[in-house]
Task: inverse folding
């Protein structure tokens, strides 16, 4: 992994510099703005420092990973102020340092100085890694992935490395592993058909409404909705209410073969958002109906979002993604981040499936409680806090 810092007067300029030097696949790890302080500060310019990285082997990075300036700016602007999570990350550094040094002080008193210093380094190294590992596992990163990441960042075996550097190397590894987000873009051939599929009650309909609202209000996109959920009582009503609020048309389909004609009606639209009935992954027949619906659309550009609740157990989540694994190019949305304090499953699922991540939702409010997933926020939470 190559990691470099780039300085410029603005964020965009710094990202462009990174892109020029490291290429299209570079990923932004952090953005820091330093405002001049002290006397005559008004004469000095603000400096923006962008840390960008690229994996030399291209491993664990989505093949389409690029720096999308607009997308990055949206994701990063939300995280400018030092957050509670950042403070926790600092406190983790302090916690590790204090725990290690207090143990060492006791033991060193018993040893010769030279031997003690060598052991001090090794002890520090092992204990730091152990604590970072435990922190990741506490936040529900699967032990195998936590070990793998720690192994990757430490395989050079440089035991002179400082704690800050070990933490930041793991942080960078998490951000790289989460990859570049892939979200709905209103470009190219019209209409684009977007399916929302997944287990019952995870927030498919609510997420569809949030996305519809954002695209309508922010991009003035022409949107239509279709629901194939005639299974649950009031499901159609639920979507109709959102459609009415947004003044967008909605159609109900009862059979797979009705989808094509319904799409035809909306051929002049930018986005056609298709809501599907929630299905238990254990009911293979019902899941097959959803897959048939998705595969019945072939002559239009389509995107499929598998909606997962961050509160679902990892074991069940694995089975859910396995059930839908024959849908190619599916993307993952994680909902209900507000209902959990451990985001490990986001990383676990990315590492297990290598599917692109896209949005996260964190509340019931339409349209506010949704954003493009922020890998830096996830990485900080995994290392910094579990509240
Ligand atoms: N806390 C929280 N609740 C959410 C979130 N997203 C959706 N919900 C709530 O979850 C419940 C189910 O949401 P729906 O959008 O109906 O879920 P669905 O996947 O369409 O459900 P089915 O169509 O029945 O499978 C509702 O009460 C939503 O308000 C979220 O990000 N956080
Ligand atoms: Mg629904």
Result:
């Amino acid at each position: 992994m190559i990691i470099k810092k780039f300085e410029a007067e603005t964020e965009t300029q710094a990202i462009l510099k990174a892109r020029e030097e490291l290429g299209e696949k570079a990923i932004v790890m952090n953005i820091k703005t330093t405002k001049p302080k002290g006397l005559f500060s008004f004469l000095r310019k603000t400096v923006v420092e962008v840390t960008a990285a690229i994996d030399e082997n291209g491993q664990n990075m989505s093949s389409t990973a690029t720096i999308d300036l607009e997308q990055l700016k949206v994701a990063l602007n939300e995280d400018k102020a030092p957050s509670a999570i950042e403070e926790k990350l600092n406190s983790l550094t302090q916690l590790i340092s204090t725990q290690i040094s207090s143990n060492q002080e006791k033991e060193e008193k018993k040893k010769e100085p030279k031997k003690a210093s060598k052991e001090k380094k090794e002890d520090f190294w092992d204990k730091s890694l152990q604590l970072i590992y435990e922190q990741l596992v506490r936040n529900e990163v699967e032990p195998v992935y936590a070990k793998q990441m720690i192994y990757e960042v430490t395989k050079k075996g440089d035991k002179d490395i400082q704690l800050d550097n070990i933490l930041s190397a793991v942080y960078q590894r998490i951000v790289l592993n989460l990859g570049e987000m892939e979200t709905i873009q209103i470009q190219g051939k019209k209409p684009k058909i977007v399916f929302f599929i997944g287990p019952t009650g995870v927030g498919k309909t609510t997420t569809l409404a949030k996305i519809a609202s954002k695209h309508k209000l922010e991009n003035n996109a022409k949107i239509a909705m279709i629901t194939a959920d005639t299974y649950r009582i009031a499901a159609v009503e639920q979507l109709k209410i959102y459609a009415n609020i947004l003044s967008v048309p909605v159609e109900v389909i009862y059979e797979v073969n009705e989808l094509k004609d319904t799409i035809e009606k909306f051929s002049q639209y930018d986005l056609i958002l298709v809501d599907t009935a929630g299905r238990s992954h254990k009911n293979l027949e019902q899941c097959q109906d959803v897959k048939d619906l998705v595969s019945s659309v072939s002559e239009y550009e389509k995107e499929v979002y598998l909606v997962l609740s961050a509160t679902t157990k990892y074991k069940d989540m694995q089975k859910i993604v396995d059930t839908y694994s024959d849908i190619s190019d599916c993307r993952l949305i994680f909902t209900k981040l507000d209902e959990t304090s451990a985001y490990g499953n986001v990383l676990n699922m990315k590492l297990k499936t290598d599917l692109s991540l896209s949005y996260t939702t964190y509340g019931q409010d339409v349209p506010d409680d949704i954003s493009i997933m922020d890998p830096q926020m996830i990485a900080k939470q995994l290392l910094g806090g579990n509240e």
